[in-house]
Specification:
Blueprint (H helix, E strand, L loop, with lengths): L1 E2 L4 H6 L8 E9 L6 E7 L7 E8 L5 E8 L3 E7 L2 E7 L4 E6 L18 E3 L2 E2 L6 H25 L6 H6 L2 H4 L5 H19 L6 H9 L6 H11 L2 H5 L5 H9 L3 H11 L5 H18 L4 H14 L3 H15 L9 E2 L1 E2 L5 E2 L8 E7 L4 H14 L6 E7 L4 H10 L5 E4 L6 H4 L7 E5 L5 E3 L9 H12 L2
Parallel strand pairs: 2-8, 7-9, 14-15, 15-16
Antiparallel strand pairs: 1-11, 2-5, 3-4, 3-6, 6-7, 8-10, 12-13, 14-17, 17-18
Helix pairs in contact: 2-5, 5-7, 9-10, 10-11, 11-12, 11-13, 12-13
Length: 467
C-alpha cells in the first residue's frame, strides 16, 4: 500500500476546498475487456499536466466495469489500459455509461516501455447523447483533420488562398451551440486555428478580447490556446527588445513587474490570465533552466500569497510542490511492501546507511547487464550502502528466484500489488536508480546507471561525507 508523505495530493485538494464532494459514477463495457485492469487518474492541473493516481478497477469476465470517484468540480479523468488513454470530463453527481472501443493490449514488452505512444480517445457516453464529451468528440472528428491540413499548408507554404475554404468546412459544427461550455470550447478552438492560419491576431482584436474577457482554466480548449499563444512568451522576450526588462523582473522575483510588461504589450490584460501565463512560463523555465531556481521560488511564493484569485494562489502552491517533489532533502513517497518472506518493509528500516533504491520490471538483457555490473562492485560499500530492489509488475516470485539463484544478496520488495508506484516515483525507464541519505531523504533523484559510472558517483558522495 503506497502512502505519500509529500504534500502534493493535499495541495491538490485546495483547488476546491470550499466545495462539497459528490461522487461521479463511471461505468461501462467494451469488447475484449474481460478481466482487464483500468487505471484511473485525475489531471492535477493544466500547467504541469501531471496525473494523480486514483484507483485500479478490474473488469468482470464480460468486460464490464464500475468506478465511483469523489469530485468537487468538473475534472479531467484519464483511464489508461492497453494502448488507450481514455479522456473524460467528469462532473460531480453525474453518471457516465461508457462504450469503449475494442481492447488492444500494448505490444509485448510495451508495459515496461513508457515511451510507447498511447492513443488518446474520448469514449462515447451512451446514456446522454448531449454530454459534453460526446459533443467534443464529434467536433474533434471534423476539426482535427482541418487543423492538420491548415498546419501543413502553412508549414510547406502551400496555396494559402485555399485556407479560408478549408476552415469554412467547419461551419456545420460551429453553429447553434446550446451548451455554454461547449460553445466556449468551439470558440477557443477556432481562435487557435485562426492563429495558426493567419498569425497571432492580425486585425483580430476580437480574439484578444475573447481570451481576456473570461479566465476559464477548466475548459481544455482555453488552456490549450493559452499554452499555444503564450507558453513560450518568456523565451521569446529573452530574444527581443524586452530582454532586459524581463530579466530585471525575474531577478526581482516580481510578478507585478511582469504584469506591467504584459499590460504594456496589450495582449494579456486579464489579471488572472496574466498570473496564469507567469506560472506557465516559470514552471517550464525551471525545468529548462532559463529561470534561476531562487527566482522561480520567489515568484511562486509571491503568487501563493497575492495571486489574482484563489485558483491562481492554489495553482502556485501546487506547482511549487511539484517542483520540490523529489528535490534533495525531501522524503520520497513512502511505501510498505512485502519482502521475500512476506514481511512488510518501509524505508525506515534502512536508515543509518545510504540506500540505493532501484526499480526493476523486466529481466531482459539491457536490465541484467546493468544489474550485473552493479552486483560486481556493490559489496565494496556494504558498510555504508544498502541496496533495495523494488520489483514492479507481475511475476515477483519468478524474478526473485532468478536473482536468488545468481546470489544477488539484496533486499527484493514486491510491488506487484502497488500498480501506481511507477507514477509516484515518476519512473520513465527501467531499471531506475534513486539514492537516499542516511535519514531516508532524497540525496539524488535520478542516479546514473551502473554503466554510466554509478560506482564513482557513489564513492564521491561518501568521500564528501568523510566516511
Amino acid at each position: 500500500m503506497m502512502r505519500i508523505r509529500n504534500s502534493v495530493i493535499l495541495s491538490l485538494l485546495l483547488f476546491s476546498a470550499k466545495l462539497v464532494s459528490q461522487p461521479a459514477v463511471i461505468k461501462g463495457c467494451g469488447e475484449g475487456y474481460g478481466n482487464v485492469e483500468l487505471f484511473f487518474f485525475r489531471l492535477s492541473d493544466p500547467v504541469s499536466h501531471k496525473l494523480i493516481p486514483l484507483q485500479v478497477v478490474k473488469c468482470n469476465e464480460k468486460g464490464e466495469f464500475f468506478a465511483e470517484i469523489s469530485l468537487k468540480e468538473r475534472s479531467r479523468i484519464n483511464i489508461k489500459t492497453g494502448i488507450y488513454n481514455f479522456i473524460l470530463l467528469a462532473s460531480p453527481g453525474k453518471e457516465y455509461l461508457l462504450k469503449l472501443p475494442p481492447c488492444i493490449p500494448k505490444p509485448e514488452g510495451g508495459e515496461s516501455n513508457p515511451f510507447i505512444t498511447e492513443r488518446n480517445v474520448i469514449p462515447e457516453v451512451i446514456n446522454d447523447s448531449t454530454d459534453i464529451n460526446n459533443l467534443i468528440r464529434r467536433f474533434d472528428e471534423v476539426y482535427n483533420p482541418v487543423f492538420n491540413r491548415v498546419s501543413e499548408h502553412i508549414a510547406k507554404g502551400l496555396k494559402k488562398d485555399e485556407i479560408p475554404g478549408i476552415i469554412s468546412s467547419l461551419n456545420k459544427v460551429t453553429e447553434n451551440q446550446a451548451d455554454p461550455f461547449y460553445s466556449d470550447f468551439v470558440i477557443y478552438r477556432m481562435i487557435m486555428l485562426n492563429a495558426v492560419a493567419y498569425g497571432e491576431f492580425p486585425d483580430r482584436r476580437e480574439d484578444s478580447v475573447l481570451i481576456n474577457r473570461n479566465f476559464m482554466p477548466d475548459n481544455p480548449a482555453y488552456t490549450d490556446l493559452v499554452e499555444q499563444l503564450y507558453g513560450n512568451c518568456f523565451k521569446a522576450m529573452l530574444t527581443s527588445g524586452m530582454r532586459d526588462v524581463l530579466i530585471r523582473a525575474l531577478e526581482n522575483s516580481s510578478p507585478m513587474e511582469i504584469r506591467k510588461i504584459f499590460t504594456r504589450e496589450g495582449k494579456i490584460i486579464n489579471r488572472q490570465l496574466q498570473d496564469y501565463v507567469i506560472l506557465e512560463n516559470i514552471y517550464s523555465g525551471f525545468y529548462e533552466g532559463f529561470v534561476k531556481d531562487r527566482n522561480v521560488y520567489g515568484i511562486l511564493d509571491s503568487l501563493i500569497s497575492e495571486g489574482g484569485s484563489d485558483y491562481i494562489r492554489n495553482l502556485a502552491s501546487l506547482l511549487k510542490n511539484h517542483i520540490l517533489f523529489f528535490s534533495p532533502g525531501t522524503y520520497p513517497p513512502e511505501f510498505s511492501l512485502p519482502d521475500s518472506t512476506g514481511e512488510k518493509v518501509t524505508p525506515v528500516r534502512f536508515r543509518g546507511k545510504f540506500v540505493l533504491l532501484l526499480f526493476i520490471r523486466d529481466t531482459d538483457y539491457a536490465a541484467l547487464s546493468e544489474l550485473s555490473l552493479l552486483k560486481s562492485w556493490a559489496g565494496r560499500f556494504e558498510n555504508n550502502l544498502s541496496i533495495v530492489a523494488v520489483i514492479t509488475g507481475p511475476g515477483y516470485r519468478e524474478k526473485l528466484r532468478f536473482f536468488m539463484k545468481r546470489n544477488y544478496g539484496w533486499t527484493f520488495l514486491d510491488a506487484s500489488e502497488s500498480p501506481f508506484i511507477s507514477y509516484y516515483y515518476d519512473l520513465k525507464v527501467y531499471p531506475s536508480f534513486f539514492l537516499l541519505d542516511r535519514e531516508g531523504k532524497i540525496a539524488v533523484k535520478y542516479c546514473p546507471a551502473p554503466s554510466e559510472n554509478l560506482e564513482g558517483f557513489i564513492r564521491n558522495i561518501l568521500e564528501r561525507e568523510g566516511k
